[in-house]
Specification:
Blueprint: H1 2-26, H2 50-55
């Protein structure tokens, strides 16, 4: 029984380490190519127009 108390945690540790390596192989890391962030659409009203100047005022 004492042998099992020593072997089981070591086997579980080995399984956890193996799963960590497996996860690193399956999932892309930080170095993976990521798409560029989406660009915010331009406002429908030009910035210099009188309508745009009155939109922000209350």
């Amino acid at each position: 029984m004492a042998v099992l108390a020593v072997i089981i945690p070591l086997v579980m540790l080995g399984v956890m380490l193996a799963l960590g390596r497996y996860e690193e192989l399956l999932l892309p890391g930080e170095d993976a190519d990521r798409p560029e962030p989406a660009v915010a659409p331009s406002p429908a009203v030009p910035v210099g127009s009188p309508v745009a100047a009155s939109v922000g005022r209350k």
